[in-house]
Amino acid sequence: MGFPMSGTTVLYLILISAESILTHVESSVPTAPNWVRATAGPKVNLALYYESLCPYSAGFITNDLVKAVQTPDIERVINLRLVPWGNARVNRSTKAVLCQHGERECYLNTIHACAIQSWPDQKTHFEFISCIEAKAFEEYDSGSRETIWKTCCKQLELDTSLISKCYNSGLGTKLELHYGAETDRLSPPHKFVPWVVVNGQPISDYPNFMRYICLYYKGPTPPKACLKITPQST
């Protein structure tokens, strides 16, 4: 036989149930690699908020950031966080994701998110994303929409099934929505893309991001590139 429950008891049970549901949802979404876990030590946190078909984002990734990631002496001192969302938004009525440069950009943003999830090593997923960005505009109308990223997988000897599984299962969309929420929480809010944040501080002159890496690095052995940069305050 049951026992009568007071209003306080019912409220308590509702709160416990809601908390359990929230815990289950949060535990089912993978955490971001490198960024939140790599807070100890002298490495510098470098975050890039961008969108896949923005020419300025593509230019920064393929012309500037690539030099840092592909230089071991620099890559060793940074925790790189890529956030492929940019100026996208969620339609309040349909809940669909709308991207600044159309549906194709939404698709590629999701492929980027799946790559970050599939290959947590920052150099591996960056090289894949950089490869896509280098081809995104020149192959805009050629072949299926899978052509670019599958070509990059082949070029880098990466398993295409990981991306396909992530995208087709809906996980990529979940990851994108989390990236959107993270972008919305930026303080101050991003004003443009690419939006570069170093150790929590946004920098407007993002092409000079290496100066900020050198400024914030407090480890015993700075990259050799830092010896050529004149120290300045931010």
TrEMBL record:
Keywords: Glycoprotein, Signal
Gene Ontology molecular functions: oxidoreductase activity, acting on a sulfur group of donors, disulfide as acceptor
Signal sequence, start to end: 1-27
Highest taxon of the lineage: Eukaryota
Pfam hit, one: GILT
InterPro entries with a match to the protein in the record: Interferon-induced_GILT (IPR004911)
Family statement: Belongs to the GILT family.
PANTHER family found in the cross-reference section: GAMMA-INTERFERON INDUCIBLE LYSOSOMAL THIOL REDUCTASE GILT, SAPOSIN A-TYPE DOMAIN-CONTAINING PROTEIN
Protein name per its UniProtKB record: Gamma-interferon-responsive lysosomal thiol protein-like isoform X2
